[in-house]
Amino acid sequence: MKKLKKEKLTELWSLLAERTSLYLPVDEGGSVNFLPWEKGMEVDLDALNSTIPPKSIFFQQTEVYLQYTTEEDGLKFEEITPQGPAVLFGVRPCDLKGIQLLDNVFLQEPEDSLYKQRRLETTIVALTCTKPDSSCFCTLFDIDPGAAPGADLLATDLGEEFVFTAQSEKGESLLEAIATLLEDAEADSKAVEEVRRQAKAAVPTHGLDVEGLKEKLDSMFDDPIWGTFYRRCLGCGTCTYLCPTCHCFDIQDHTRGEEGLRFRCWDSCMFGEFTLMASGHNPRPTQKERVRNRFLHKLNYYPKNFESYACVGCGRCVRKCPVNLDMIEVIKALGGVTSGSC
Fold first, then answer.
1. pLDDT 10s digits, 165-212
2. What backbone phi and psi angles, to 5 degrees, belong to 265?
3. Which of 40, 45, 218, 244 is the most buried (most CB within 10 A)?
4. Which residues contact 156 (CB under 8 A, 6 or more apart)?
5. 125 φ, ψ (degrees, to nearest 5)
6. What whole-number percentage of the chain has pLDDT above 90?
């Protein structure tokens, strides 16, 4: 283990930015998001979560993946390649799990080449939580806020310094690259373990229990409860755009003269047009079917395919849904509660 005094953070950013693209949680005036770092930016490592989850680094909100020019003998295509090696610093354990759940979608055959290249070339530095929020429920899905298996480097905040633990070869290489700024931290191992223990203990349980919920939902497709949920839903899509595991997208072409491009952009199953067919038929004609699909996908469909719930308990939907139709409420209403809970 190695440690870095917080007073050296700006030096760290500069050193990393000299050798690679560096993404950090930046305060944009009340909204914290992962952006390419530039000198003068206000980095906020204390924010519980970024507004937009860091999945956007790999699965971009808007992305051109094909460019072409019309010529006499046909179309000439221009290859699109990602930016190159990068460091993503400050990812919380819940958001890291969200990225890993996206891996199941984009890295299965046929693989998404752009997503895959970004994943392979990006070193992820996870940051353990020290103050989970009342809206958090990550431990429900076996996520430890003080651990981040799968991250290349794990950082723990000890107040005046960060302690780094390498968890992969890329993590080891990153520590070597910043070695001049680091000190040995073996003597801090007990303090690190205590911070991680306290973080896990601080996550509210909300009286939730998802044991057997996936199987229970097999028989609830036509349950009247969906008719209750949807009446409050505005169909705004906030929940899907802020969710670390949502991965719906649309594909469109844009042509101007002899040049054109094809791009994809995030979409939402909460929108009526999402399932609208060219014939005019819509298999999810009302908000009831859309709300049902969202929650069944998270708690039933995805788990059937990948043996993991498609929720990481980050709490964004709890904090941001304008009508409070969030995952905690839905799980409780579906019967995912501990014995003796209301």
1. 999 999 999 999 999 999 999 999 999 999 999 999 999 999 999 999
2. -145, 155
3. 244
4. 127, 128, 146, 162, 163, 165, 192, 195, 196
5. -105, 110
6. 91
Kindly report the length of the chain: 342
